[in-house]
Amino acid sequence: MKALVLSSSPRRDGNSARLANAVAIGLTANGHEAETVYLTDVVGAFLKDCRQCRREDGTCSIDDGYRSLFLDRFLAADGIVAATPVYWYGMAAQLKAFFDRMFCYVAASYPQSEEVKRRMQGKRIGLLLSSEETYPTLFTGIVHQLQEYSRYTHSTFVGVVHGQGNARGEVERDPRDPIAQARQFGRDFFTTCYTDYQIDTPRPSRVWEDASTP
Q1: Which of 98, 100, 154 is nearest to 125 (CA)?
Q2: Spatial contact of 98 and 43, defined as CB atoms under 8 Å apart
Q3: pTM score, whole prediction
Q4: Which sequence spans correspond to the domains of the chain?
Q5: Which residues contact 32 (CB under 8 A, 6 or more apart)?
């Protein structure tokens, strides 16, 4: 399987970037293809008014690396792992801009929008977070946005790895060992059990089969 890891911190050696590197190691260790992209290298602008800047042929006129990243690498991936520091209790602006600018390619004014929307669906989505604070609802807003994105695109939100740190590399001193968690998250990314029951969902009485039960 093919995974795209989006590292959104402007610090290439920062804490969320280290989590991104760890998840890529876990993915490749289990035989998957993993590509890590630093969003500051390719996302050079925010979303604009498409009615003002879209070219006559319907393509986006923002001249940075986003078009290639989204059309050639994001759409081709089976899974996406987004890594971000927690800034003001939300995601980094680079990652938010990445999601915002999808609009240019799903809007009806883009000639291939139907094909783009088809290829956006059915991916596995993961989230890596680093922050100085650790209280339970610290990153609820970020998780919720990724959950809603997954729901909207018929994708699967696999889970979250969170590490605590502020100075560069401090996440490696977190006693919960989020680096190891991120590696394992990568190894299990395409196989992790995910359920999202509704009240009328048919389901067995047990979550895990017991080999000793006849």
Answers
A1: 154
A2: yes
A3: 0.90
A4: 2-188
A5: 1, 2, 3, 186, 189, 190
Q: Amino acid letter at 57?
A: D
* Residue 162 phi, psi (nearest 5): -125, 135
d(CA 192, CA 49): 39
Question: For 194, which DSSP code?
Answer: -
Cα distance between residue 83 and residue 21, in whole Å:
10
CATH class of 2-188: alpha beta
**Number of C-beta neighbours around residue 212 at 10 A:** 5
Pairwise CA distance, residues 130 & 95, whole Å: 14
Q: Which of 28, 3, 5, 32 is nearest to 17 (CA)?
A: 5
pLDDT (tens digit, 9 = 90+) per residue, 168-180? 888 889 889 999 9
Residue type, 93: A
Distance CA(103)–CA(179), nearest Å, equals 33
